[in-house]
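Anyone opening a protein record will find just a pair of labelled lines. The record below illustrates this layout.
***
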Amino acid sequence: MRKSKLDLAKRLNRSRKRKYNKFLTSSLYLTTILVLCYLVYLNLPWSFHLFVRWATKGGDLDKIPAKFYAELNQLCLRADSRGEVRTRNYTEYTEIAESLGTFRCTLVNGGQEWLIEDYKSFSSADEAILGTQLAVFITEILGTDYSYRIRARIPRY
């Protein structure tokens, strides 16, 4: 049985519509996946955010998340005479210890703010993030020849 030209035109129009819908559907899926990845990234520990910044060679850091202000104030009050804070045996809030390690606190702006300073670099891939195999793998690929400085001010409580 032969199809008329009208049926062929309907079929061609239908396939265009399907291609358009397919593009919109795939774009929607991609957008959803990217939004979910971003939300997962936001919930990762700050040490991983710092590692991603290091891995992408994001430059020096001049801000610290506000959720750490109270704890950093307490740590800065315990600084030694040189202003250094060692977090090696610090167990109260491990995210700060893993993120900063040993850092320096200095009062600035008339004693109203703390200046937090730290320097991050890796001499071997095993130092990337303690125990995280993905981080070790990424640093083995990217190399260990990059470092960055944390220099941020937080309000003194």
